[in-house]
Amino acid sequence: MYGNDCNKTYKIHTTRAGQEHDTQKEVWRIHANNTIKHDELLETSLESIYAIVQSICNHVLNYQVYNSEEYVDIDNKQDTLQLLGCIKNLLLKWKL
To answer: Which residues of the chain fall short of a pLDDT of 50?
Structure first.
């Protein structure tokens, strides 16, 4: 019998039905742990990008962002894409 973990196939020895079940559980446990670690790394990276975007804005732009209607929602979610959208909209308004 074969187990599948992230597009990798591993041979599972089937000397006993219980051993096969235990091996499958272990493969899924490892997969779940790797997924959790990946999600935590992604979350940390997104928070870092959010802080970097804020830090490269000058004080006038930061003031405008902080006073925008959407800032509370952006900051609560730490949503980098929404922050960039807000900055884009503010810059487009200034150019008009």
So the answer is: 1
Of residues 28, 5, 3, the one with CA closest to residue 13? 3
Query: Among candidates 59, 65, 55, 67, which has minimal Cα distance to 85?
Result: 65
Domain ranges across the chain: 1-56, 57-96
Q: What is the pLDDT of residue 78?
A: 87
* pLDDT in the model for residue 1: 46
Distance separating alpha carbons of residues 79 and 29, to the nearest angstrom: 30
Amino acid at 12: I
Report whether 54 contacts 71 (CB < 8 A): no
